[in-house]
Amino acid sequence: MILITYQKNWIKSQEIINSKKKLRFLKTHHSMCKVNGHVFTNYQNSLGAIYIVRDPRNVVTSVLNYYGLKDYNEAQKFIFNENMFLEEKKDNEHNNRIVFTLVSSWSNNYNSWKNFKKNLLLLRYEDLLSNPIREFNKVRKFLFELTKFEIDEKKFITAVKENSFEKLKNTENKYGFDGWVESKKRKKNFIMR
Questions:
Q1: Using one digit for the tens of pLDDT, what is the confidence trace for 91-146?
Q2: What predicted TM-score, i.e. pTM, was given to this entire model?
Q3: What angle (nearest 5°) sits at the alpha carbon of residue 135, between those of residues 138 and 53?
């Protein structure tokens, strides 16, 4: 399996990123796993984690649409696959590289991060939809407690409203979405409620 060499660089890569002594936010779908004795991250390299958990019944629909799978059975197999890893090509002006993400199954992924004992904020995706101000206030408070990072109240409210799912959906309708998996045809939008 390709991860045999890949996981050896997890911590080393994070140490390089952290050597710049800047606060960075990294988004991942990776499970908080250990492969051949190598952990995905550790407490020395991660100040904390914000985990957004989504009802697995909705994840099935999201996976079905995003990956262009043939039916719900295939999508269900995807989220139950404990060995699921994603390969994503990243192109930018400096280099072309492939990033591997060991997602594992929905339950393994969720439980792996739920057991991250240092500064974990657990949010429900459905709560972000129903009450974004309340939920993002939790994020705001969490960040302040960890970093003393303050967000002006007016700017905070504006940011939440300007990045609502409805506004993102309208932007996608107007400009498209370039994050689709390569070579998959989509009939639906990515931003869905």
A1: 666 566 677 889 999 999 999 999 888 899 999 999 999 999 999 999 999 999 99
A2: 0.83
A3: 100
Q: Give the number of other Cβ atoms within 10 Å of residue 148's Cβ.
A: 7
Residue 83, judged by CB atoms within 10 A of its CB (0-12, 13-18, 19+), counts as exposed
Return contacts of 52-55, CB within 8 angstroms, 24+ apart. 52/123, 52/124, 52/125, 52/128, 53/110, 53/122, 53/123, 53/124, 53/125, 54/124, 54/125, 54/126, 55/124, 55/125, 55/126
Q: How far apart are CA 69 and CA 62, in angstroms?
A: 10
CB neighbours of 105 closer than 8 A, spacing ≥ 6? 79, 80, 81, 82, 84
Based on its alpha-carbon atoms, the radius of gyration of the chain, rounded to whole angstroms, reads: 18
The Cα–Cα gap between 189 and 1 comes to 33
Structure tokens at 44: 């020395």
Q: Where are the domains of the chain?
A: 3-129
